[in-house]
Amino acid sequence: MAYTTIDDPSAYFHTQLFTGNGSTQSITNDANAGDFKPDWLWIKSRGTTHGHAVFDSNRGGNARLASEGTQAERTNEGNVTFQTDGFNVTSSHPTTNNNSTNMVAWQWKVNGGTTTSSNDGDMSGYARQTNTTAGFSIITYTGDNTGGGTVGHGLGAAPEWVIAKSRAAAKPWQCYHKALGNTKSIDLDNTTGASTNSASWGNTTPSSTVVTVGNGDTNHTGNMVMYAWKPIQGFSKFGKYTGNGNANGPRAYTGFKPAFLIIKNTSDGNDEWIVWDNKRSPSNAVNDYLGPSSDAAENADSDWAIVDFLSNGFKIRSSDISYNQDTHVYIYIAFAESPFVSSEGVPTTAR
């Protein structure tokens, strides 16, 4: 059996660092795999307190969402254009191109913006682009605020990480994670823990063809967007661990050396989501973090948000409650820098 179907994860996920110039500029990606045209583009100012900017090639580069807030989609604010080998920032907006400021752009490749209207579900206004190799779909649909609606994801296997957001109204970023189950949801835009909420996913686990939405924020009346991922061996993992309250913290096996990691305390309502990557922290300890649920600047060389990226997972190196309180349950979302073992049987190196 092959260890992985993706020997070079940079073909589908890439982090690019750049410096804003307060005007317009072209950002060229330096992905190992060559030209990288993003379909999901998530930009954050590292050096200043400004919000996140989330774009995708279904909605277009003039339609910004902010992961730290509930606000509706904003048009013509910090616009970008998707390019063959990167993206252009076309304005001086501080969320995408703050002058003389270190910026980060997390990027996923799907299908070059080419969508299909073929829907295994029953929601109207449907358009989807899917990459089954990378296990990712971007879906737009029209919500009707009626429980039991279904959204086709096209992945061929049940997704384990799903985000749904109203584009039309100030509604939270509702998240499904397999480790939480179908009766609970958690919001990307705030610090609350997981909550029981049948209005999100209709108490129904995503199937190999559809995601069920309820009569709440995953199906608010009007335009919606959904991002859905299935795990890919050696490339992506959506798991959980239990904290031990010790600086010698838990170790999580992912099957790859991480390039990108998000962790959230699901047991407590006062802890930020935390995101690390291998470009802002190119060696261990990994301690330059940003918060998807916060507009705060990057906390560089943190003395508490500390993990190690390993050849086959990650290791917690702090007892902080945000990601290692004793007995608390934490979910994580991880994407690879390299698989633990390639399809040719070659192991990756440690950091």
Summary keywords:
351 residues, mainly beta, seven-stranded antiparallel beta sheet, six-stranded antiparallel beta sheet, 3 helices
Strand order of the largest sheet: 10-11-18-13-14-15-16
- Mean pLDDT across residues: 96
Report low-confidence residues grouped into runs of 5 or more: none
Approximately how much beta-strand content do the residues carry? 35-45%
Rg (CA only): 19 Å
Largest sheet report: 7 strands, antiparallel
Describe this structure in words.
- The chain is mainly β and 351 residues long.
- It is built from three helices and 25 strands.
- The strands form six sheets. It has a seven-stranded antiparallel sheet. It has a six-stranded antiparallel sheet with strand order 1-9-3-4-5-6. The chain has a four-stranded antiparallel sheet with strand order 19-25-21-22.
- The longest helix has 4 residues, at 94-97.
Write a brief caption for the model.
The protein has 351 residues and is mainly β. The protein has helices spanning 94-97, 198-201, 321-324, and strands spanning 13-19, 25-28, 40-45, 53-56, 60-65, 74-75, 80-83, 86-89, 102-108, 124-131, 136-143, 149-152, 161-166, 174-177, 184-187, 195-196, 210-213, 222-229, 236-242, 251-253, 256-265, 274-277, 307-309, 313-316, 329-339. It has three helices and 25 strands.
